[in-house]
C-alpha cells in the first residue's frame, strides 16, 4: 500500500501555503507524512511547489501534477501514474486532526478493494471525506476520462465506481477528517474550537 499526500492546491483562501502551517510545532505536510510512513510501503507527495518542502526526507518522492489546475482528482491521476502499489491511501495535506488510529482503521479495510470495491472512503456525522480514502489503481482510466470530459468533482469518480462508505462516526468522538481552508479555520483549530 502506498501513501499519497496531496499538496497541489493554491491555498488561495488561506493566503499562505496550507501544507506549511504548524500543528504542534510540525508543518502539516510533515505531520501527515509521519502518520503514513510507519504503515505504508512507500509515501509520495503530489506538489507543484517542491521548493517549499525542505523538511521532507529525500527518500520521499515529490511529483508535480501532470496537468496543473485539475484539483484533487488531477493529483490522484498523477499519483496513479507514478504509484508502485495497486492500493493507494490518498490524503489531503490539510487535515490537522488526523491521527494514526484513523489511518490504521482505514488500512484494515484495504482487503475490500481486492474484489468488492474500487474506493473506500470515510463518512463522519453524515459528511463524506474522499480526500482521506483508499483507492485501487484500477480506477485510473476512469479518472483520466473524467478529467478529459472536464469533470473534476471527486464525487464524479466515487459515483462512477464501486465505492464503500465507511461510517467512522462511532469510532471517533470528534471529526478527525476536518480540513482547514482559511485563517479562521486554523485559528479555531488551534484554540480547540473546531470539531
TrEMBL record:
This is Probable molybdenum cofactor guanylyltransferase. It is an enzyme of class 2 (transferase). Belongs to the MobA family. InterPro entries: MobA-like_NTP_Trfase, Molybde_CF_guanTrfase, Nucleotide-diphossugar_trans. The N-terminal domain determines nucleotide recognition and specific binding, while the C-terminal domain determines the specific binding to the target protein. The keyword Chloroplast does not apply. It is found in: Cytoplasm. GTP binds at residues 6-8, 18, 65, 94. GO terms for biological process: Mo-molybdopterin cofactor biosynthetic process. The gene is mobA. Transfers a GMP moiety from GTP to Mo-molybdopterin (Mo-MPT) cofactor (Moco or molybdenum cofactor) to form Mo-molybdopterin guanine dinucleotide (Mo-MGD) cofactor. Its cofactor is Mg(2+). Keywords: Cytoplasm, GTP-binding, Magnesium, Metal-binding, Molybdenum cofactor biosynthesis, Nucleotide-binding, Nucleotidyltransferase, Transferase. It comes from Aneurinibacillus aneurinilyticus. GO terms for molecular function: GTP binding; metal ion binding; molybdenum cofactor guanylyltransferase activity. Residues 3-154 form the MobA-like NTP transferase domain. It holds the Pfam family NTP_transf_3. Its EC number is 2.7.7.77. One of its GO terms (cellular component) is cytoplasm. Mg(2+) binds at residue 94. It catalyses: Mo-molybdopterin + GTP + H(+) = Mo-molybdopterin guanine dinucleotide + diphosphate.
Amino acid at each position: 500500500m502506498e501513501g499519497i499526500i496531496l499538496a497541489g492546491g493554491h491555498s488561495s483562501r488561506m493566503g499562505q501555503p496550507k501544507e506549511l502551517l504548524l500543528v504542534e510545532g510540525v508543518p502539516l505536510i510533515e505531520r501527515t507524512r509521519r502518520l503514513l510512513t510507519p504503515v505504508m510501503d512507500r509515501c509520495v507527495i503530489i506538489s507543484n511547489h517542491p521548493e517549499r518542502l525542505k523538511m521532507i526526507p529525500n527518500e520521499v518522492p515529490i511529483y508535480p501534477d501532470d496537468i496543473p489546475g485539475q484539483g484533487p482528482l488531477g493529483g490522484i491521476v498523477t499519483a496513479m501514474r507514478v504509484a508502485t502499489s495497486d492500493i493507494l491511501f490518498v490524503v489531503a495535506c490539510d487535515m490537522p486532526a488526523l491521527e494514526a488510529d484513523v489511518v490504521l482503521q482505514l488500512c484494515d479495510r484495504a482487503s475490500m478493494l481486492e474484489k468488492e470495491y474500487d474506493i473506500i472512503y470515510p463518512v463522519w456525522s453524515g459528511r463524506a471525506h474522499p480526500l482521506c480514502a483508499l483507492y485501487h489503481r484500477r480506477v485510473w482510466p476512469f479518472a483520466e476520462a473524467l478529467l478529459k470530459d472536464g469533470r473534476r468533482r471527486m464525487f464524479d469518480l466515487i459515483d462512477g465506481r464501486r465505492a464503500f462508505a465507511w461510517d467512522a462516526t462511532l469510532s471517533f468522538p470528534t471529526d478527525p477528517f476536518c480540513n482547514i481552508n482559511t485563517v479562521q479555520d486554523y485559528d479555531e483549530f488551534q484554540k480547540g474550537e473546531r470539531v
